[in-house]
Design brief:
The complex is a heterodimer. Chain A is an all-alpha fold. Chain A has one domain (27-138). Helices cover 62% and strands 0% of the residues of chain A. The longest helix of chain A has 24 residues, at 101-124. Chain B folds into 2 domains: 3-131, Glutathione S-transferase Yfyf (Class Pi), Chain A, domain 2, CATH 1.20.1050; 152-307, Rossmann fold, CATH 3.40.50.11810. Helices cover 47% and strands 9% of the residues of chain B. Chain B contains 13 helices and 8 strands. In chain B, α2 packs parallel to α12. The longest helix of chain B has 18 residues, at 60-77. Classes of the chains: A mainly alpha, B alpha/beta.
Chain lengths: 149, 311
């Protein structure tokens, strides 16, 4: 958070709602990426870890996602959402004057919102994403508790 | 004729539970499309549930057994080489069972014991190849084959292709994917895009094509599912789509039902149509909307398809 007080999960959601409602601009790309990082920080902290300051492929967002998915493959259900967020950030920063820039900014806000909705939902219901992804943590728990047959 | 093209002309068909219930339109349209394309489906005899999520979460090895029984019947009783499962959940679970039986001796022991108890031959990894309906059409007919058969072009229809999460995750159970441009991609799947484009549709750039819709929590945590779906629908519309094409009955039902719920509970109204890719391709092949089960969808797309010249 670079010394800035961290927003709560609710505040992140309200900020995204406001951005989507107002129609984000190209200049909002950095904040939308940061909102993605912040919700990932909440997830990592909720699992009892300190959010990494590192980067993957030039993005802290991707490093945080990787940290959040460690030993929890179901968290990979938001892997592509994170990558799309990084991709849209790149589009906006590298082609700010592109004719589709405003459309891209709107799409980036909706992608960031999906990341927020998935993670905030998963913080309420741990198994969100388990159907679609690997339920290995659950399986390992079941296997270790099942008496030998 | 390529190996796959020839192999997929006749496949064992595993509809699964959803296609006999909420996803019946997908069942009807898959069969109708196959027939229109000259492909043959032989339904797996006396098939059972794949284990879905409920069984998997109680005892994953029981789910492996249940999926293995379907493959055993196809391989040992029906002597088929390929099982085609249109439902992402079934497809995912059969692929997972295949992976477990190949890699995990304990799974093999449990499956063998239960198969003997149930009185059928034990399924051995590699006896059949499990494919999705997208693989089936893509490899048995292909884009060129579809283009040559189009009677009602999908030209002028802007589509967001939504694959959901189970079609590509986890990557390790899909060893045939990510093998170059001709294979399916787990990060950016494109088979549905390719097929619909061949039928004349215009695909929009849709960044949430594999995003979670909260499908498994649609009853236990409806609000989360509604919010996730509403965001997917809004993103599709923002991308310019008039239609979201689906290839999974769970995703499809979730999108349709939460589209209604989002309007009622969140005040978010979206008008994007939700239509199975088999329905779209079927209509492109000249089938009537009812023949592909459009009347069985929750959302009403009749006026839309008529306006587009498909009705």
């Amino acid at each position: 958070m670079n010394g800035v007080e961290q927003r709560t999960v609710g505040e992140i959601g309200r900020r995204l709602d406001a951005l989507i409602g107002a129609g984000p601009g190209v200049g909002d790309a950095g904040e939308m990426l940061l909102l993605g990082e912040e919700i990932l920080e909440h997830w990592v902290r909720a699992r009892g870890q300190e959010p990494t300051a590192g980067e993957r492929e030039g993005f802290r967002l991707l490093a945080l996602h990787r940290q959040g998915a460690d030993k929890d493959p179901s968290f990979n259900a938001c892997r592509e959402t994170c990558r799309e967020l990084a991709y849209h950030y790149n589009l906006l920063v590298q082609q700010p004057d592109h004719e589709a820039a405003l459309q891209r900014a709107r799409m980036m806000a909706l992608v960031a919102n999906h990341l927020y909705l998935f993670i905030s939902g998963k913080m309420e219901s741990e198994q969100l994403g388990e159907f679609c992804c690997s339920s290995r943590p659950l399986r390992e728990r079941v296997d270790s508790e099942t008496p030998a047959q | 004729m390529s190996d796959k093209k020839s192999k997929y002309q006749e496949v064992a068909y595993y509809p699964g539970c959803a296609l006999e219930g909420t996803g019946h339109a997908y069942n009807r349209s898959t069969k109708a499309l196959g027939k229109a394309l000259g492909l043959k489906l032989k339904e797996v005899e006396n098939w059972n549930c794949c284990g879905a999520m409920e069984v998997k979460n109680i005892d994953p090895k029981l789910q492996t057994y249940l999926s293995s029984r379907v493959m055993s019947i196809a391989a040992n009783k029906m002597k088929m080489d390929v099982v085609m499962a249109p439902c992402n959940g079934c497809y995912h679970n059969l692929k997972r069972a295949e992976y477990d039986l190949e890699k995990d001796p304990q799974s093999r022991d449990v499956v063998d014991r239960l198969s003997q108890k149930a009185g059928h031959e034990t399924y051995r990894a590699g006896q059949v190849e499990t494919i999705h309906a997208l693989d089936w059409i893509k490899d048995a007919i292909g884009e060129e084959g579809l283009r040559a058969r189009v009677k009602n072009s999908l030209e002028g229809i802007r589509i967001a292709n939504y694959y959901g999460c189970m079609y590509t995750r986890p990557r390790h159970i899909f060893p045939e994917k990510d093998k170059g441009p001709a294979s399916e991609s787990t990060s950016k799947p494109h088979f549905m895009d390719d097929l619909l484009e061949a039928a004349g549709a215009e695909n929009v750039d849709f960044p949430l094509k594999t995003a979670c819709c909260g499908g498994a929590h649609t009853l236990s945590d409806s609000d989360t599912s509604t919010r996730l779906v509403a965001n997917i629908l809004m993103a599709a519309e923002a991308a310019g789509a008039e239609v979201i094409a689906t290839e999974c009955p769970t995703c499809h039902s979730g999108l349709e039902m939460h589209q209604i719920r989002a309007e009622k509970s969140l005040g978010i109204k979206t008008s994007v149509k939700i239509i199975y890719f088999t329905q779209l391709l079927g209509m492109a092949m000249g089938l009537k909307p009812k023949a592909v089960g459009l009347h069985e969808n929750v959302s009403d797309s009749f006026a839309f398809v008529k306006q587009k010249g498909l009705g």
